[in-house]
C-alpha cells in the first residue's frame, strides 16, 4: 500500500500522527503527573514563560531552548541580499521624483507647515510634529527660506526655486528604509530567507506605498517608524525567548528600549501610533501573565523587576520622546500665526507680541470691556454693521476670533444716572462695582446699538430653545427691556474670593441671563453662512449647557480708575500647560472633521481596494493613489486564512482536542497571530471614527498584512512537512520569485498613476477593473507619440484639480480690511459687453468675450498670451456684465459702440475665434440659471432679469430695493465730455481678500459705486429673492454696481 501523507501541523518530534483524543490526553496527563521526566519538566518550564517558538537542545543537552533569530547574527548572504533589495527600492522610489514639478494633494498642508516652521509662525494641526519637523529640516538644509506658501494644488515649484526634491527625499528615504526593515523583521520572527525576500519585494512594488513615499506627506515616515517598532519588538521577543538567563542582558535591554523609542516616534508622527502602542501593550500583558504563572523560575521580586523594566521602556520612553517633540515645536513657533485662534488667551500670551498688558482688575458701570467666550475658540462677543437676512433682520451678533474695536462694549446701568456724563453716565463719577446679580445693558461702541434678544428664532440653529441675539437701537436711544441682562457669577469657575462676589477682569466667569425671556447668552461651534462671514453663531439659549454659556472679561478700561489701581493678567502657562492644552485642541479638532469629501472612503472598502484618491492631474497626466491589487488581495486573503484557522482551532480546543501540543500548530497560531493582531489594531478602530477617512489610513494595517502573508507562505513552503515542499527549498524560492514577478508586472501596469507618467486611453481602460476606480481614462491621450507633440507645442495647460481634505484643519476667519483703502480697486477698462433696453424690457444684444489677465488684474495682449502659453497656468473665471441705460431708458444704438475686439476662447488645447453672434453658454460646473436684479427707482418699477442657458431673458417684478443703498451723485454739464468715474465702497468686514470685477463704461456721464453684497443691509419690508448659487472659482467675488445719473433716482445692481 502507498504510504499515507502526513497530516498538516504535525511536529517532527511528535510520536503520533494525529491530535490525541480527549480520553488519550487524560491518560497521558495522568501518567505524566505520576512520574515526570526531569528533562521534559525543564522543557515545559521554559515553554510556560516564553511564547511557543522553535525549540532545540543546548550544548549540554539539559533542556530545550528557543532558536536564536538575532538579526545581528545572520549569514553574510542574507545581508548581501538585503542590500541588493534596498538598491532596487532606491531605483523604484527615486525614479523621476522631480515630477510633477508642482504642488500635489496634501503637499498644500505639509509643505505649508514647513514654511510656517521656518518663519516661526504658530499653526495648529491635528497631527504631532515629528514628521513635519523632519520635512522642514530637509527643506531648510536645501536652502528653503519659507517664501513659498504651497497655497494650492498645481502651483509651480520651478519658477520660485523651491527645493521640493530635497523635501520629497525625506519621505522617499523613509520608504526605502522600510524594505530592509521588513526583511530583518521576518528573519527575527524565524522566517526563511525566501519569505523575507518576498516581504521586501512586495513592499518595493506596492503602488500605494511608492506613491506616498514620493511626495511631501506624513504616511511614509509613519510606516517606517511602525516598521522599526515591529522589528524592535520582534527582536525583543526573540531575546526574551532564549530563557531566563538572557533576561536583563545587554541585548534584551537594547531591543526593549528600541521598542519604546519606536513607539514614541510612531505616535509623534500621527496618532495612529496609539494603535501600535495598543498592539505592543497587549502582547506585553500576555508576556507578563505567563511570567506570573512561572512560579518555579520567576520569583515575585524578579517579576516586579520585569514589570518595572517594561513600564520604563514601553511607557516612560515613548512619553518622554513624544513630549520632547512638542518642546521643539514650541521652541520654534514663537510668533503669532493663523493657528493661535484655536488656543486660549493664556496660551496666546506666550507668543511674541501677543502678550497682554496688565489691566484693571475691578469692573464698574461705565467700563469699556471686551467679553470672551470661555468654552470654544470662537473668540470675542462681536457685532458689525451687517444685518441678519432672516428673523428680525437686526444687526448681527457673532463671535470673532481676533482682537478688534468691534469687540468693545460699555457696561451700562439699567437707568441713566442723574447728572451723568458720557454714554453710560458714569464717566465722571466714582466707580460703582458690578456685583453678582446686577442687571445691566451692553452698549456696542462702534455702532451705537445695544445687545438685544427677543422671542425670535436664531438664524442658523432654528430650535425652540434658541432665541436670536441682535444689536438694536441707535445713538441717543434709551433702549427697552429686551436689552436687560442679569449677571450670574459661576463661583466654582471663578478665581479668588473677590471674583466670586463681583466682576473682575479675567478672574470672574459669569453667565448673562436675559431678564425678559430667561434665556442665557450662548455660543457653540456653529458657523454662520457667508452673510455672517463664517463667524461663530451667538444665541440666547433656554437651558443652555454650562460650558457654552460661560463668559469672562478680558480687557477693561474706566476713566475713573487710577493708574495705581489693582491690575491682573493671564497666568502664562508653562510647557506642561501648553502641551496639555494643545493635545485637547488637537483631539477636539480631529473629532470634528466629519464633513464628507470627494475622495473619502470607509474602512470596509480598504482591504478589497475598492477606490483610491485623486492626487494630481495636469497635461493629460494623473497621479492617483491606488494599491497593487495582487498584493492587497493576497494579503487580505492571508488574514482571512488565519481567522478561519483560529476559529477551527478554538472549536477543536473546546471539544478537547490537543492540537496546541503540536509544535507547528502552536507556532503558526502565535507567529501569524501576532501579525494579524497588529493588522486588527491598525484597522478596526477606524470603524469607530466618524471623521473623514481615506485609503492611506489603511497603509499601516497593510504592512502587517504583508508580514502575515509572508509568514503563511513560509509555513506552507518551508515548515509544514506534510505539504511536501519542506525538503525541496528550490520550489519555495520559485514560488516566491514567481509571485514577485507577477507583483512587479502589475506594479508596472499601474505605474503611470504612481509616477504621473504618460499613458494612453486604451492602456488605462485595459487595467481599470472596476467603476469605483474613478480615475478618468479620457484624461490621457490616444497614443504616446502625442505627448511628444504636446511638449513641443506652446498650448495652454489643462489641469485637473484634486480635492484637498478639509481635514487636515478648519481655518479660522481672517480679519477683513478695516477701511476702503484696504480693499482692492475695481478695474475700469473693461470693454462693452451687453446692451439692454429698459423700455422694451428685453435683452437686445449679447456678446461673449475672453480676456487674459495677470495676477494683478492687468489685461494681456495676444502677444503676451502667446509668450506665456505652456509656462504658466490660466485659471478660468466667468462673469456676466450689463451696460447701463440712460435716464429715459433709450436703447443705445449699436452703431455708436466701439468696434468689438477680436474674441477668443480656450477650446481644448487650441484657441479659436468666437463669432460675435454666437449664443452665450453657461460654463460646465455653474448653475444654468444666473439671476441679476435691476432696481429702477425712477418710476417705482423693479425688474429682475433672469439669464438662462439659452441666452433668453425674462423680466419679472421683484421686491422693493433696500432703502439705504448708498450711491454717489455727480451733476453733468451739457458741454462736458462723457466720462465714467469708478469708486468702491466696501464694508469693513465684507471685503474679501481678492476682488476681480469690471466697471463697465456707459454712454452717459455716471458715477459707479461698487459695494460688497454683504455691505448692503436687507430691506425691512421684504428682501429681494436670492439668486441661485453658482459654482464660482475659489477667489470669485460677488459685487453689486449701483449707478446714479444726473442726480436722478436710477439705480442698477448686478451680480458678477
What does this structure look like?
- This protein is an alpha+beta fold and 1056 residues long.
- It is 33% helix and 15% strand.
- It contains 21 helices and 29 strands.
- α6 (164-188) crosses α8 and α10 (250-269) runs parallel beside α12 (300-332).
Radius of gyration: 36 Å
Shape: globular
Indicate the low-confidence ranges by residue numbers.
Answer: 1-20, 32-64, 794-841, 894-1056
Number of strands: 29
**Strand-residue fraction?**
5-15%
Distance between the termini: 93 Å
Mean pLDDT: 77
The percentage helix is 25-40%
**Oligomeric assembly:** single chain
Query: Helix- and strand-based class?
Result: alpha+beta
Number of helical segments with 4 or more residues? 21
For the report, how would you describe the main beta sheet?
12 strands, antiparallel
SSE topology sketch:
Blueprint (H helix, E strand, L loop, with lengths): L21 H13 L3 H11 L6 E3 L6 E3 L9 H19 L12 H13 L10 H12 L22 H25 L4 H12 L2 H7 L5 H22 L9 H20 L3 H21 L6 H33 L12 H4 L10 E2 L7 E6 L6 E8 L7 E6 L7 E6 L25 E6 L4 E9 L8 E7 L12 E5 L20 E5 L5 E8 L8 E6 L9 E7 L9 E2 L6 H17 L21 E6 L2 E5 L3 H26 L8 H19 L17 H21 L9 H27 L5 H7 L17 H8 L6 E2 L33 E4 L4 E5 L15 H7 L35 E4 L2 E4 L16 E7 L4 E7 L5 E4 L23 E5 L21 E7 L26 E6 L12
Parallel strand pairs: 27-28
Antiparallel strand pairs: 1-2, 3-16, 4-7, 4-15, 5-6, 6-10, 6-14, 7-8, 8-9, 8-11, 9-10, 10-14, 11-12, 13-14, 17-18, 17-19, 20-21, 22-23, 24-25, 25-26, 28-29
